[in-house]
C-alpha cells in the first residue's frame, strides 16, 4: 500500500508532504572526530527524502554512542516528539540508513516498531528497504515481534542454565539460600549447621504432608526466625524449600542425591 493510500484509509493523517526526521549514529570516537560515517548517512537520508518529495525537518545525531540500548540523547529527543501536542505530532516519519544505526537489539526494535505503530508513524530504513507504511513493512514488523519473543525465551533459558551451573558448582547465584553462607572468597557457599538442622526439620514436616501454613506456624511458635530475622510465612517456607535443594559435596554444591523414587514421601490418609 502506498503512502497516499494509507492516508486515505486513515492510518496516517493527511497533512500535506510527509514530515520527516532523519537519524544517524556512530559508535566510535574516531568516527565522531572525522565525521565521515555521519556525513555519509546524512547525505543518503537527504537524497532519499528528495526523491520521495518529503519534507526533511531535521537530522538528529548520536555521536560515539553504542546501539546496545535506547538510552541515547538523540534518539530520546526524537521519541519525545512522538506524542501529539496541541493536536499535532512533531513528525510523520523517521528515516535511517540502516537498522543497525537505530538499534542492534531485536527487542528494542520491536519496542520502537510498537511505539511508531501505536502513534501512526512510519519507520523507514533505506538499505533494508523497510517502510512500515506498506504491507511488506507491516510484515516486517510482525516478524520482528516474533523474533523478539524468541530472543526473550532464549535469554531466559541461558540465564536459568547459567544459574543452575553456578549453584551446582558451589557459587552464589542470587540471594544466599537458607542453610548456607558465603565463604571468605565471597563466591562459594558453605553450610550453616544450625540452619541446616532447621532446614532438615522443615523438609521432614513437608514430607509428612504438613501445609506451608502449618509449617510456618510451627516455626514461629518455636521462635525460629528467617535468614532476614523475620517471621515465617507460607511463601517463605515454600521459597526456602525450593532454593535450598542443594547441599555441599566435594567443596561445592550438588543436587541432593535423595530422590523421591528412592525414598517415597509419607502421606497421611485423609479422612
- Overall shape: it is elongated
Largest sheet, in brief, is:
5 strands, mixed
The largest beta-sheet arranges its strands as: 2-1-3-4-5
Number of domains: 2
- The helix/strand order is HEHHEHEHHEEHEEHHHEE
N- to C-terminal separation? 69 Å
Q: How many distinct helices?
A: 10
- The count of DSSP E runs of length 2 or more, i.e. the number of strands, is 9
The overall average pLDDT, rounded, is 78
User: Which spans of ≥5 residues are poorly predicted at pLDDT below 50?
Assistant: 1-15, 246-271
CATH architecture of the largest domain: 3-Layer(aba) Sandwich
Radius of gyration: 29 Å
Output the structural class: alpha/beta
- Roughly what fraction of the amino acids lie in strands? 5-15%
CATH class of the largest domain: Alpha Beta
Task: Determine the CATH superfamily of the largest domain.
Answer: Resolvase, N-terminal catalytic domain
Describe it.
- This protein is α/β, with parallel strands linked by helices and 271 residues long.
- It has two domains: 3-152, Resolvase, N-terminal catalytic domain (Rossmann fold), CATH 3.40.50; 180-255, no CATH class.
- It is 45% helix and 14% strand.
- The chain has ten helices and nine strands.
- It has helices at 3-9, 29-34, 36-52, 73-79, 99-102, 106-118, 135-168, 193-207, 212-221, 234-243, and strands spanning 19-25, 55-62, 93-96, 122-125, 130-131, 180-182, 189-191, 246-249, 252-255.
- The strands form three sheets. A five-stranded mixed β-sheet has the order 2-1-3-4-5, sandwiched between helices. The protein has a two-stranded antiparallel sheet with strand order 6-7. Strands 8-9 form a two-stranded antiparallel sheet.
- A hairpin with a 6-residue loop joins β6 and β7 (189-191).
- The longest helix has 34 residues, at 135-168.
- The radius of gyration is 29 Å and the shape is elongated.
- Mean pLDDT is 78; it is low at 1-15 and 246-271.
Amino acid at each position: 500500500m502506498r503512502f497516499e493510500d494509507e492516508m486515505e484509509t486513515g492510518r496516517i493523517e493527511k497533512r500535506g508532504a510527509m514530515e520527516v526526521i532523519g537519524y544517524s549514529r556512530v559508535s566510535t570516537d574516531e568516527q565522531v572526530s572525522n565525521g565521515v560515517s555521519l556525513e555519509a548517512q546524512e547525505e543518503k537520508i537527504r537524497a532519499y527524502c528528495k526523491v520521495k518529495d518529503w519534507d526533511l525537518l531535521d537530522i538528529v545525531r548520536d555521536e560515539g554512542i553504542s546501539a546496545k540500548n535506547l538510552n541515547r540523547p538523540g534518539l530520546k529527543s526524537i521519541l519525545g516528539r512522538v506524542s501529539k501536542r496541541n493536536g499535532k505530532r512533531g513528525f510523520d516519519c523517521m528515516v535511517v540508513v540502516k537498522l543497525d544505526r537505530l538499534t542492534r537489539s531485536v527487542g528494542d526494535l520491536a519496542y520502537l516498531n510498537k511505539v511508531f505503530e501505536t502513534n501512526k508513524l512510519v519507520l523507514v530504513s533505506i538499505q533494508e528497504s523497510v517502510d512500515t507504511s506498506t504491507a511488506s513493512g507491516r510484515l516486517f514488523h510482525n516478524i520482528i515481534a516474533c523474533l523478539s519473543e524468541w530472543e526473550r525465551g532464549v535469554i531466559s533459558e541461558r540465564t536459568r542454565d547459567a544459574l543452575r551451573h553456578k549453584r551446582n558448582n558451589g557459587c552464589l547465584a542470587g540471594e544466599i539460600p537458607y542453610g548456607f553462607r558465603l565463604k571468605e572468597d565471597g563466591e562459594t557457599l558453605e553450610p550453616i549447621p544450625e540452619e541446616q538442622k532447621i532446614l532438615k526439620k522443615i523438609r521432614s514436616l513437608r514430607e509428612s504432608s504438613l501445609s506451608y501454613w502449618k509449617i510456618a506456624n510451627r516455626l514461629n511458635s518455636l521462635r525460629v526466625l528467617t535468614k532476614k530475622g523475620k517471621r515465617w510465612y507460607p511463601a517463605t517456607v515454600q521459597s526456602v524449600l525450593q532454593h535450598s535443594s542443594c547441599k555441599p559435596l566435594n567443596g561445592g554444591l550438588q543436587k541432593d542425591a535423595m530422590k523421591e523414587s528412592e525414598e517415597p514421601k509419607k502421606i497421611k490418609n485423609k479422612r
